[in-house]
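Appendix C. Worked example: Probable 2-phosphosulfolactate phosphatase
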Amino acid sequence: MKLDIIISADNINEKYLENKIVVVIDMLRATSVITTALNNGCNKVVPFLTVEEAFDYRKNNVEPCLLGGERRALKIEGFDFSNSPLEYTSDKVKNKIVVITTTNGTRAIQGASKANRIFIGSMLNAKAVTEALKTLDKDVVFVNAGTYGEFSMDDFICAGYMISLLSTNKENALSDIAFTAKYIYENNKDIVSFIKNARHFSVLKSLQLEEDLTYCTKKDIISIVPEFKDGEIKIASF
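Step 2, the predicted output written as structure tokens:
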């Protein structure tokens, strides 16, 4: 399979993604939140670009909805949750709809809507995602959410980890950027030591969100693969 990376939501070319499998990565923290919420029993996650859309969805929905997300890493006024995956516990989200809007992650998800299939990836479920990709055996583009439209070290090394997993005992056609991500991961397997210099890591640390950072950098603790389809994210079936 051919493997490639898009470095931020601002760099998405919708035409390029047509007929491809996409994995959206925003490990700090949107895709970690989505994966955690679904793993803890929420019915689905519905991503929106704007705060207003999120409020409107809850207002017009008869099912119980919880609002989560952030702007500039901070909780949105009137929302139930911030963008901390640790808040989305089973006792709060089970059998409910989680509506989410974030600065970078939900933009990347919506921007990838022309792809054939869109999966949600993070360090937490990287192995599960790559096992699914091996089964599908089609060209894959890893769409990194980035930070405010710019390259993000954390999303990049997460993509590198998945590319490394996909390359075990298999020859794939890697773009230059995919090869670089794989190389960086394989030479920096201690994720925190690498991404501690990332701008977004520093922002979260300054907000005393070290527990989020510790959680989001854990590898392969969740075995589900979320999929974005028809405006909703649910656990994928294969």
